[in-house]
Amino acid sequence: MDSQLEPRYIPPMKFLEKLRKKLGLTHYSMAKRLGMTQQGYIHLETRGHSCRLETLLAIRSTFGFTWEQLGKLIDDELKQ
Q1: Who's near 44: CB < 8 A, 6+ residues apart?
Q2: Which residues are within 8 A (CB) of 33 and not within 5 positions of it... i.e. 6 or more apart?
């Protein structure tokens, strides 16, 4: 596998929790929107997780973020 495509650790994505709650979604419904398991989504939101490009693409396209906006949200998580 190309090393550029391997999962990379990212911090907990607290912005996803805020977005999910704003939309009134459960962990399960958010996970389904992003094409992942509920357990995988919960880890992404609360613990940080290895993250595949496909997951970032799903977040970006599902919620209409640009790559710059998504990158800033992740960078902001790193600073906390």
Answers
A1: 10, 12, 13, 16, 36, 51, 55
A2: 25, 58, 62
Domain spans, the chain: 8-79
CA distances from 16 to 6, 51, 76, 80 (A): 22, 14, 13, 15
pLDDT digits (tens, 9 = 90+) for 8-51: 566 788 889 999 999 999 999 999 999 999 999 998 888 876 77
Q: What is the pTM of this model?
A: 0.75
Answer for the pair 19, 62: CB distance below 8 angstroms, yes or no: no
Q: Does the pLDDT of residue 1 top 50, yes or no?
A: no
* 8-79 CATH: 1.10.260.40
